Amino acid sequence: MAIQDQNTSTSASVAMIGQALTGDPESLRNLVGLVGAFSIRLIVAGLILGVTLWLAGRLARLVERSVARLSKSGSTDPTLTKFVAGFARYMIIAIGLVVVLQQLGVQATSVIAVLGAASLAIGLALQGTLGNVAAGVMILLLRPYRVGDHVELSGRQGTVAAIDLFNTRLAEFEGMTLYVPNGKVFGDMIVNFSKSGRRRFELTFTVDYEDDLDLALEKMLEVARADPRVLGDPEPWAKVTATADSGVNVSMRCWASTSDWFNTKWDLLKAVKEAFDAAGLRFPYPHQVQVDRAPREVTAKVRLQRMTAN
Fold first, then answer.
1. Which of 10, 85, 193, 277 is most buried, with most CB under 10 Å away?
2. Angle (deg, nearest 10), helices 127-142 and 108-125
């Protein structure tokens, strides 16, 4: 019905313009009035558009400053700041454009219907991409990891270099750069090694059965406590953990900050080895069993003799 009324109004306007061009005074006055009314509506629409753009920019800056204050307290991320500010800006612009179209006489319901159909078609065509965007929004809101964290995503470890709405950029320790889709990240287990600020490591050594186990445990704890990178809370732990074929396993567990974890673990491995050597503690070598077998010719001859005897 609205489309039919609009077509009727358009036909009437075209007829009036035709009559005004023929010199009809009444049609000419009506045409002048129509142009004047449309000019006023056009000016009002321009003012609304200008106010909309100004308000969108002002609101975006206000939202960006508000979210930036939260970023300083460590509860959010710069990527989230840009996303929220941009979302607020485009929402205001979209509302303003609808008002402008209504002011110009365009049926807003028709425009919204067209936009809805176009959005549905685009959404069906870009399901995977939109899924990554939705996952990116959830990651930015829930903050399971931040830029600079050491994480494990989709089975790969590295440092988070950047986060956007589509993927997470991961810098591996071998120097490779990985772009992991946010949809795959959010749908899988996320391991954040930097969240607590500390990590535990365990070192296991095998000493000879004849060695002093208490001395081995004491030396391990001395080495751990002498390293300033080893945290005192929780305290280093050392116990006998197993009896192996060629020796006794003694293990040590220590905590270190996330940034010192790798170097501390491997440095303590070397330091404990040197401390054991200095204390006379021995590392047993693996035992090998040698099996002597007769040559094939002798084995066949013995088998033949047994068969003949039977």
1. 85
2. 90
